[in-house]
Every structure is written in structure tokens, then in C-alpha cells.
Amino acid sequence: MRVVHVTSEVFPFSRSGGLGDVLGALPAVQAQQGAQVTVVSPWYAALAGHPAEVWTGDIPEVGPVRVGELEQGGVQFLFVALDEFDRPGLYHADDVWRFTRFGRAVLPALAALDLHPDVLHGHDWQAGLVVAQAHDLGWPTAFTVHNLQYQGRWNLAEAAGWTGLGAAWFSAEGAEFYGDLNLMKAGLVGADHVTTVSPQYAREITTSEYGEGLEGVLVWLTLEGRLSGILNGLDQERWDPRTDPDVPTFGDLAGKAAATAALRAEFGLDSAPILGVVSRLADQKGMDLLIEALPELVQHWNVVVLGGGDPLLTAALQGWAQHPRVIFAQGMNEPLAHRIYAGADAFAMPSRFEPCGLSQMIAMRYGTLPVVRETGGLVDTVPADVGFRFAEATPQALALACQAAHTAFQDRAGWAARVDRGMALDFSWTGPARQYLDLYERLAAR
């Protein structure tokens, strides 16, 4: 089985969040399971790596293109270099333009390298145009929605000429969406099968509450048997408390206590239990709910927050950082993230929606019990006898769940049993990777 993944980011070469983590782990496990796997992504100016150039040429209506290659973990990584990506950072305001350019370069670059996949698998809206083009060529295609909120929209009258797609795509049955080009919709309509990153999220996005305006398309896909949820896995080597170089390594509760003591000493925290947060600062992640709940939380918890994003949320946390029980570290700091996962007693994820989520899996693997809202992948991954779940997206509901966690924390034997159950859960990529390969085999057989 020859599989080509198309993505906007892939760890460790480029990453802004969970998408990069998934594409850094899933292909390697698929390669271990016998597939020939290629991952195609942009060659960013800030790419963490030095690809060897394997092709250069002019692609009609795109212009000069270079393709670089790296191999790692049995996976071939191809990086497509375009002038539009020769700037700092990954994402920018003109990304619909940039990723239509990228999308138009991918299939010609694969052809130039004589690479013909059995299945092409696109990820999120940045790969939607490639999936649509592959559909027109009759290639078997899969498309995964990692976050439906981001759709790649631009005024259709301006953007239609960028894509190279036929006129049939610019209708309500194609990629048109309320007068816009919608590249997420292009991927949904063009794919032979659509997956999301958890079974619960696959159900939620067919509703008006979570469907982001595309629920009609997603209901249609469900009725045709073309939408399913495959739960994301976790990179077991990168997130392993027994070998993690960033924390006091441990495999049991005694080691967990050492990690907690180290985090407490690092920030000068008092003896209250520690509630950790590692997150983008965004309304989707419920960070405004966390901030509103802080007056209640600090009565029982030290709260350690790592993250960056919304300036208003950032400013609010900076203000709260004057409190002796609130620590706020702005930005992304992977070693500190590891120390928080390992050293916190509980971990808060008050998300308004969460397609899958990796943080709750990491937390449980490190003996830290999640306090989560009942949505998306948080429902699928946090058992009621391990973590603490709440239904309403309100600061009051979050505070009550944290109060329940604090009460449970006083029963040290009961808490230890929860920790043991959480650390024993299997979130490896082995099962999900096999599910994807089974899907590819069905698509290729058609």
C-alpha cells in the first residue's frame, strides 16, 4: 500500500499544534505496519531540517518549484518550496492564496517524481484543493477533519481563478459556500471517505451546534456511509515518563511524587495540589472559563498555565500571575510542558469543543488526572473512573468539577487508584494506524 499524506505541518520539521503531532506519529506507525508512506508539506523558510533537493522545475500556472526530501522512521518526507512560503512562521493572513498555490503544485510534483499513490490522504482545509484535484483524476482519496472551525474561505469571484478547478466545483454541490470558496468543503465533497479524529466529534459535527455551517454536507456524508471517527493516538516514545529527559523519570507513584516536588520547587508553590494547563489561549479551549473560575480555583489549587494566543486572555493571565497560587508562562516551551504534565496533580481542559485532544492523553500517561468538559475526543478518552467531567461550558461547572477533583484528592488511596488506571490506558497509534490502513484498502479496492 503506497500512501501519500498531504498536510500543512509535520513534527519535528514544522508544527503549530496537534495536526503536526499527528502527522509526525501516524505515518511512522503505518510504515511499521508495512505501508510505503510519503508525507508532503510546504518547505517553510523556518523548516527544522535540511532537505536534499530532489527535483526542480516550472509547473504551469504555478511557476518555479523545488522539492526537497528527508527520510526518517521509514517515512519519506517531501517538502514543496514556493516563493509564497519563503517568510517567517507557518501561517499568515493570505493563507488561502498560499495553500491554493501549494495545492496546485503537489500533484505535478508527485508526477515528476514518478510517485503514484494507491490512496491520497489530505488533512484539514490546507489539503482540500489537492483532494479535489485527485478526485477529478479518479484517485482514491481520504480526507481528515482535524478542526472544522478553520475552513480556508475566500471570496469566490476572486479565488476561483486561483484553483485550476473546473466550473462544476463552484456551485453549492462543490466548493462554493455562501459566496466564498471553501477549501474545507472541497476536501469533504471530493474525498471518497472523510474521517474526524474521534468518534464523538464525528457525531457532533453533524449538528448545528458543532457543524460550523457544514452540517448539511456532513449529514449527507454520514447517510452515505462516508464519514467516520478514528481516534488519534499518542506518540509513545515522545511522551513516556519512564524515559523523558525533561522530567524526573518515573513509572510509578513514587516517581510521580518526585516530579510534583520538582515542579513545586521550580515555581515556589505552597502545599496545595497543582492544577496544570498547557493550551492555546483561545475561546475554543475554554480559557476564558478558566480565568473566570480562578477566584474559586485558587482557594484549593495552585494553577500553572503554559500557553499563548489571544491577547486579551494573555493580559488577563498576566494580571492573575501576581497571585501567589497562579503561575503563567507565556508562549510555547516544550520542556516546561513536559514538566507540567509530569508534575501537576490534575490537568484542566474546559474546551467548548475538542475534536480529539492530546493533552488529556499525555496527562493520564504522566499520572495527572484530567478535568475535562464532555465534548469530542475528551468523551472518548477520559473514563469517569479516572478523570472528572462536566457538561456545561461555564466557569461554574468547571469550578464544581475542580472542587470534586480536590475532594477526591483527599482520599489518597482512591486518587492513587485513579492514577494507576489512567497510566495503564493504551493510547498508542497501533490501533488507529491499522484502522486507517483498513480504510485505505477498502478505498483502493473500489
UniProtKB/TrEMBL annotation:
Alphabetized SUPFAM superfamilies for the sequence: UDP-Glycosyltransferase/glycogen phosphorylase
Family matches, as InterPro entries: GS/SS, Starch_synth_cat_dom
Record keywords: Glycogen biosynthesis, Glycosyltransferase, Transferase
Any GO MF annotation of the entry: alpha-1,4-glucan glucosyltransferase (ADP-glucose donor) activity
Pathway stated in the Swiss-Prot or TrEMBL entry: Glycan biosynthesis; glycogen biosynthesis
E.C. code: 2.4.1.21
Reactions it catalyzes: [(1->4)-alpha-D-glucosyl](n) + ADP-alpha-D-glucose = [(1->4)-alpha-D-glucosyl](n+1) + ADP + H(+)
Ranges where the Starch synthase catalytic domain occurs: 2-218
Binding site for ADP-alpha-D-glucose: 15
A Pfam family recorded for this sequence: Glyco_transf_5
Top-level division of the source organism's lineage: Bacteria
Function: Synthesizes alpha-1,4-glucan chains using ADP-glucose.
Family under the similarity heading: Belongs to the glycosyltransferase 1 family. Bacterial/plant glycogen synthase subfamily.
Protein's UniProt name: Glycogen synthase
Gene transcribed to yield this protein: glgA
